[in-house]
Design brief:
The protein has a 4-stranded antiparallel sheet, with no helix packed on it. It contains 1 helix and 4 strands. The chain is about 5% helix and about 55% strand. With about 80 residues, the chain is mainly beta. It starts with a strand and ends with a strand.
Length: about 80
Amino acid sequence: HRLGGGLRLQGVAIPTGDDFDVVEGLEDDVYQLAIEPFFSYEGEMMFVRTGIVLPVDERLGPPFTNTWGFKLATGVRID
């Protein structure tokens, strides 16, 4: 069995959004940034990873005040 954890940095960029009208109101901010502190467990037959996604960007943040997300991934190994 293994236990782990960490901090994931993620971002989304929409550099061509103006061409398709998908970044209305984001003309000066086409990159959105978030961090995800996470915990993971890996056993012989299964794994679990869970974390909380916290937006850093002014548009969506600050975390827990305007927005946040919960992430859960599980799986089973079949040999």
